[in-house]
């Protein structure tokens, strides 16, 4: 039997898919029939350094020959070095990191940390934000279709309109542990925060004694032209979560929390988190991103100009184009037929989150295909 037949018999059918990718190099991937695609999905903003980046794969191989796993019962090679690097690029004073295996787990850690350090129980989140599919992170994720079947969920969460600071001020009370938000709504189709929104959230959290948690799982690691989206604003969170682009495709997430916010012994843990190989991959990934970070605004502008007639929303290398549900699926299929992979996010929006190493010629190729697919 082939992969599709085996999948239909032995794998839980939680995903809709009909294409098998077997190889990747740079910004391109190949399917099992040998067809080549320019990948503007990048594993959903994960393959930030492109596919099989030489520096990253060499770091993985070097570490795999020395030590694959040892657990957090011992000091782990590369772990402290990565923590130092992440804290420094975050700009969070006196910050400390904690590693996880995914973005959802990173947000779980943020939730636990906020509850135990504040002594409060509830959270406020925003409509159309996405924070994960584990039970606690799902409790803070608005989308009813994926949340409501699993209710009742904890922690208790109040959802308000994204960008509504007046509603936020009313929602945060003496039992609110934290306010969690994305600076750009990724799953909702790349919707940037209104100007001054993060600063307003920061002010309300300070006044009410709640913690500000920035979910940078998708927007972090240089995706928006800074290491983290909040660095484009005048606000710094108490806790920031990250994942996706952190290790070029190896499963990894992390949180960084400001001075005075830290887990004590036995309050949190993980068998696999922050292992030698993923930390080596992350260190190499950060080196590559550091080299391309200054070019992100220029690449973003090239996408903006090339797709201008379709009114794109562009925040670094996160690009959204509203087409409507049916039209979005048709355009994505046409792009794929023409050799470019794009993604349909929420509310009928095309989402582009290509590798950060994408070249000008590759941007032009993507623009040409996407434009033709939309027009036709």
From TrEMBL:
Alphabetically, which GO biological process terms does the record hold?
L-arginine biosynthetic process
Its UniProt pathway annotation is: Amino-acid biosynthesis
List the Gene3D superfamilies.
Aspartate Aminotransferase, domain 1 (3.90.1150.10), Type I PLP-dependent aspartate aminotransferase-like (Major domain) (3.40.640.10)
UniProtKB keywords: Amino-acid biosynthesis, Aminotransferase, Pyridoxal phosphate, Transferase
Provide any one GO MF term from the record: N2-acetyl-L-ornithine:2-oxoglutarate 5-aminotransferase activity
Q: Name one Pfam family in it.
A: Aminotran_3
Please, which domain of life does this record's source organism belong to? Archaea
List, alphabetically, the InterPro entries matched.
AcOrn/SuccOrn_fam, Aminotrans_3, Aminotrans_3_PPA_site, Class-III_PLP-dep_AT, PyrdxlP-dep_Trfase, PyrdxlP-dep_Trfase_major, PyrdxlP-dep_Trfase_small
Q: Which cofactor does it need?
A: pyridoxal 5'-phosphate
Q: What is its EC number?
A: 2.6.1.11
CDD domains the UniProt entry points to: OAT_like
> So what family is this one in?
Belongs to the class-III pyridoxal-phosphate-dependent aminotransferase family.
Q: What is this protein called?
A: Acetylornithine and succinylornithine aminotransferase
Instruction: Give the species.
Output: Methanolacinia petrolearia (strain DSM 11571 / OCM 486 / SEBR 4847) (Methanoplanus petrolearius)
């Amino acid at each position: 039997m082939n992969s599709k037949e085996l999948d239909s018999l032995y794998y839980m059918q939680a995903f809709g898919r009909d294409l098998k990718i077997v190889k990747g190099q740079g910004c391109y991937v190949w399917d099992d029939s040998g067809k080549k695609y320019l990948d503007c999905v990048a594993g959903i903003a994960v393959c930030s350094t492109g596919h099989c980046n030489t520096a990253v794969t060499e770091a993985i191989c070097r570490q795999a020959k020395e030590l694959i796993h040892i657990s957090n019962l011992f000091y782990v090679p590369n772990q402290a070095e990565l923590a130092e690097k992440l804290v420094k690029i975050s700009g969070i004073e006196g910050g400390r990191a904690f590693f996880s295996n995914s973005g959802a787990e990173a947000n779980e850690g943020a939730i636990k940390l906020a509850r135990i350090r504040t002594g409060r129980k509830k959270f406020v989140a925003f409509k159309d934000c996405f924070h994960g599919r584990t039970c606690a992170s799902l409790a803070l994720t608005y989308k009813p279709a994926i949340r409501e079947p699993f209710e009742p969920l904890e922690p208790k969460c109040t959802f308000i309109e994204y960008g509504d600071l007046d509603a936020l001020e009313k929602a945060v009370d003496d039992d609110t542990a934290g306010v969690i938000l994305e600076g750009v709504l990724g799953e909702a189709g790349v919707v940037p925060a209104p100007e001054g929104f993060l600063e307003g959230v920061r002010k309300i959290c300070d006044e009410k004694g709640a913690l500000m948690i920035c979910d940078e799982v998708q927007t972090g690691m240089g995706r928006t032209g800074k290491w983290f989206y909040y660095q484009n604003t005048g606000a710094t969170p108490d806790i920031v979560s990250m994942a996706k682009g952190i290790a070029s495709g190896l499963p990894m997430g992390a949180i960084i929390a400001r001075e005075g916010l830290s887990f004590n012994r036995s309050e949190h843990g993980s068998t696999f988190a922050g292992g030698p190989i993923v930390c080596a991959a992350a260190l190499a990934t950060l080196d590559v991103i550091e080299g391309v970070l200054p070019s992100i605004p220029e690449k973003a502008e090239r996408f903006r100009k090339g797709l201008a007639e379709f009114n794109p929303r562009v925040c670094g290398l996160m690009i959204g184009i509203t087409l409507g549900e049916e039209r979005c699926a048709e355009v994505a299929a046409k792009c794929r037929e023409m050799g470019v992979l794009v993604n349909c996010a929420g509310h009928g929006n095309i989402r582009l989150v290509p590798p950060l190493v994408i070249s000008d010629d590759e941007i032009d190729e993507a623009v040409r295909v996407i434009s033709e697919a939309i027009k036709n």
